[in-house]
Amino acid sequence: MKNRIITLSIVLITFFQVHAQVQNDTLAFNKNRFELNGRIILFNQVTNLMKDNVEALSAIQKVKSNNAATAIFSYAGGFLIGYPFGQVIGGGKPQWKIAGIGVGLVLISIPFSVAARNNARLAVRIYNEKVMQTGSGGAKIDFGLTDTGLRVRYSF
Fold first, then answer.
1. What is the pLDDT of residues 111-122, one digit of tens each?
2. Rg of the Cα trace of the chain?
3. With a threshold of 0.70, does the pTM exceed it?
């Protein structure tokens, strides 16, 4: 009987230690989207996750402003590129200078897009480093005596 209790105790302790080794919530930035533990999350959720981390929040706010600039320049450029084609389809004389300006606006949007992607990766890296630092305490098992008998405390 004593051997069964010892064996059961060892199995339970090992079981709890294995489950305590699960990594903390890690954030990833893949294919221009954020993922938390493999699930896609929205930008607002990412901002909410990073509200306690000043450095990561600063980087994610740069992502937001860079994405806004990218959208403004690329949408305006796309409209100006498409406008002369609409004139051709409508039977009018196309103004190719407008299309050239549109191409220029699209080219201006590229550095903003690259900066947004780089800042997103930076924010994710900073966030994950902070999560790993705070979650690196590990698991701890305490044995001791109490008024009613033996105590086993497992904390993580």
1. 999 999 999 999
2. 28
3. no
Place of tokens 């806004």: 68
What secondary structure does DSSP assign to 28-71, as a single string? EEETTEEEETTEEE-HHHHHHHTTT-HHHHHHHHHHHHHHHHHH
Q: Answer for the pair 140, 154: CB distance below 8 angstroms, yes or no.
A: yes
Residues contacting 107, CB < 8 A, separation 6+: 77
* Measured CA distances, 149 to 140, 143, 152 (Å): 20, 11, 10
* Residue carrying structure tokens 């800042």: 119
CB of 49 closer than 8 Å to CB of 36? yes
Question: From CA 65, how far away is CA 112, in angstroms rounded?
Answer: 9
Query: pLDDT (tens digit, 9 = 90+) per residue, 2-40?
Result: 777 777 667 666 655 544 444 557 889 988 899 998 899
What is the distance between the alpha carbons of residues 156 and 139, in angstroms, rounded to a whole number? 4
Helix, coil or strand: residue 90: coil
